[in-house]
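Input chain follows. Return structure tokens only.
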Amino acid sequence: MSPLLRWLHRLEDALIVIVLVGMVLLAVTQIVLRNLNGTSLIWVDPLLQNAVLWIGMLGAMIASRNDEHIRIDIASHYLSPFWRRGLSLLVDLFTCTVCGVVAWFSLHSVRDEASLGMNAFSGIPAWWLQVIIPVGFSLIALRYAVLFVLNMAGRRPGLADA
């Protein structure tokens, strides 16, 4: 694995840990403040809602790195290696295309949000919290494009007997 890929994997792993630990600490802080003081930090609830989005996207990015997304894989058990490889090519291309389209339109949505200058809470621009969507889907699309190319070359990992 190249140093750049290792760095990217570590960054993804670190981000998901930081966001998850931050979510737990903020949620516990909210509970303690509400139970002991009868008060809370007004910005924590919207931040936690957006952190769930980040956890979901980071998790999807990490799953795509090893081609471990949820899939219904009944047909490949009954197909010959030739047809299994063909099905895998189709799935990789479809996944890449769908993720690329979502990335494209979410990028435009984030750009529009930035041009409106809307704040999510406490002066934090809303687009800062939404930028994970185009970034995440772009990375997933890129990973499945690489898997498609590797499959075309007959070198796709995880495709036994193809």
